[in-house]
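Researcher: Here's a chain I'd like modeled. Treat it as a single chain, no partners, no ligands.
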Amino acid sequence: MDAIGLLKQDHSYVQSLFNKFDRTGRNSFDKKFKLYDEIRFELERHTHVEEEVFYPAIKELGPEGKKLISEAMKEHKEVNVLIGQIDRLSPTDENFEDRVQSLIEQVEHHVEEEEREIFHFAQENCSAEQLETMGRAIEDMTRDARDARTRRVA
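Model: Modeled as a single isolated chain. Structure tokens:
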């Protein structure tokens, strides 16, 4: 699958985790924490593959690509700050749910812009072969990250 298809799959999966988090009762602390832990892992993994594979290729496409990626990188940093704040909280902390909701809103905004602007730009400026090559790299990195996580959990 090409890079854009894979990144959109990631977006859909993370959105499904957000929906599960929202549907989980406010006092289901263990379940909320497990969902947050999975959300955090998926966001960190997704951000890593974007920053290592996809974004550098888009930046190479000229000033417009650089501008788009600069904005996306700022948004990634904001998400990382929120994750750091949430990581310091207990799931029973009164601010835990509110911080996760802020994270969800921030990520949804980022995804909307990324799909509308960056993906559109990539489709117009990258060859199918380039997108496929990036896709293979993303698949490899994703598999490695998930395998490593499985080994840590087991």
